[in-house]
Design a protein that fits this description.
81 residues; mainly alpha; 52% helix; 0% strand; globular
Length: 81
């Protein structure tokens, strides 16, 4: 497992949680990308890396798909519980 070299950005509030939940359930980035693409979210490896690093904004439909794939809820991803 690679360690993040750059500090987290400030473009979204869910990236850190997406990465933590993905690792918690033992899912690789490529598997997450596949599941997102099945749900109509067109994201590449670079985009996902930037999303997790909070260097890229996340759209509402991406957040919904992420919550579904990661078996969690949108409120948790947005840290509003």
């Amino acid at each position: 497992m690679r360690i993040r070299k750059q500090p987290l950005g400030d473009r979204n509030i869910c990236g850190k949680k997406v990465e933590a939940r993905r690792k918690e359930i033992g899912m690789k980035q490529k598997d997450l990308l596949t599941q997102l693409q099945i749900r109509g979210v067109d994201l590449n490896a670079s985009g996902l890396s930037k999303l997790e690093g909070q260097l890229r904004s996340v759209s509402d439909f991406e957040i919904v798909a992420l919550a579904e794939v990661l078996n969690t809820n949108v409120s948790w991803l947005l840290d509003v519980e």
